[in-house]
Specification:
Elements (H helix, E strand, L loop, with lengths): L6 E9 L2 E14 L5 E2 L5 E10 L8 E4 L2 E13 L3 E11 L1
Antiparallel strand pairs: 1-2, 1-5, 2-4, 3-4, 4-7, 5-6, 6-7
Length: 95
Amino acid sequence: MRRHFDRELMLYRNTSGSFDLVEAFKCELQPLDDANTQDVEGAIGREWLAFADYADVRENDRAEIDGVTYRVVGVERLTWRGTDRHCEIRLRQNL
């Protein structure tokens, strides 16, 4: 899986009213589906899924990949075969 981590994800977190860089790591980015979605607030966006090693990612963090900004809307941490730990990070790109 890690051989597909070909993009750099810059992770920002809101601390004291501004978004500060928390960390940067490699990931794989895939579109979740071909359709746009609308959230409860009415914002229209596109959903993406990023795969990465374990990282300190939280909902409402901001992620920047290839100059495009996304909002973290979900994180799932998984362990495969007891030792291979990774994150699946659900991202929203507002349009």
